[in-house]
Amino acid sequence: MNGGTDLSNHSIDALLPPEIARKAEAVGVQKTRMDVVSLLALAVLAGAFIALGAMFATTVLAGADGVLPFGLSRLLSGVVFCLGLILIIVGGAELFTGNTLMVMAWAAGEVRLREMLRAWTIVYIGNFIGALGTAGLVFLSGQYLGGKGSVTAVALNLALTKVTLSFDHALFLGILCNVLVCLAVWLAFGARTTTDKVLAIVFPVSAFVVAGFEHSVANMYLIPLGLFIKAWGPTELWAQLGGNYDALTWTAFFVSLIPVTIGNIIGGGGLVGAVYWFIYLRKRP
């Protein structure tokens, strides 16, 4: 008794892991076939979305030290940072770190290595444009001046911490970060509703923020914002903050992206994409 509508081929349950694997493979193929202009535009959006999440998290952290316990303040910032990936998954955009799951389509022989690297390069450039542009807009808006300088302090100290990480720490923090990001994307692939997708994203993404792992696209916003503040922020802020930010330079920013980006590829493509390909998609005798 369904009013003449056949619902036998429609499921309201979440996809099972083998179905998620096939969907991830198909999505990877689709992304590599997208034209350059569309892929770049969607990547710019994703960079901006991650930047908005980072702006949200930075503001929430402002003034929290000494008021809230360390873990609780980081938990709050992690939850609000999820805004970025929620906008990407639900609204539609192309994020480099999530796109490392294309390894599944490549390992399955559905796309060529050149096609995958082309897509990664376009998306990485687009993410950089979107994140950097949003950092510029946030700086020009004066949003960082909120909280009587506390937002500024968080932005500068985050940027300084990220550019002064050793290569090996940045690499492994990048690996761990994208394991969690790609698991969030993996879970969202299996979701049927917007609510399912949001809930699937919140815990893995919050975990990487709380733990202090390194996300290359988030760093494309956080570090330039600190650089903009250092170069052109109100001079009276320096007397108030009293920190030494000599190590915060554009050269240090670009160098710091290298290990984090490599780590993100290993974490997402190797420890999530390749593992799930091996379990569900590899050809068996």
How does this structure look, described?
- The protein has 285 residues and is an all-alpha fold.
- It has a single domain (17-281), classed as Glycerol uptake facilitator protein, CATH 1.20.1080.
- Helices cover 74% and strands 0% of the residues.
- It has helices at residues 17-32, 36-61, 70-81, 83-92, 96-99, 103-107, 113-141, 150-163, 167-189, 194-211, 216-232, 236-241, 250-281.
- The N and C termini lie far apart (45 Å).
Strand segment tally? 0
Q: Give the mean pLDDT.
A: 93
Order of helices and strands: HHHHHHHHHHHHH
CATH class: Mainly Alpha
Question: Judging by the overall fold, what is the CATH architecture?
Answer: Up-down Bundle
Report the helical percentage.
over 70%
Helix and strand composition category? mainly alpha
CATH superfamily: Glycerol uptake facilitator protein
Strand content: under 5%
Q: State the domain count.
A: 1
Total number of helical segments? 13
CATH topology grouping: Glycerol uptake facilitator protein
Question: Key features?
Answer:
0% strand, disordered N terminus, 74% helix, mainly alpha, 285 residues, globular, Glycerol uptake facilitator protein
Summarize this, please?
This protein is mainly alpha-helical and 285 residues long.
Describe how the helices and strands are arranged:
Elements: H1 17-32, H2 36-61, H3 70-81, H4 83-92, H5 96-99, H6 103-107, H7 113-141, H8 150-163, H9 167-189, H10 194-211, H11 216-232, H12 236-241, H13 250-281
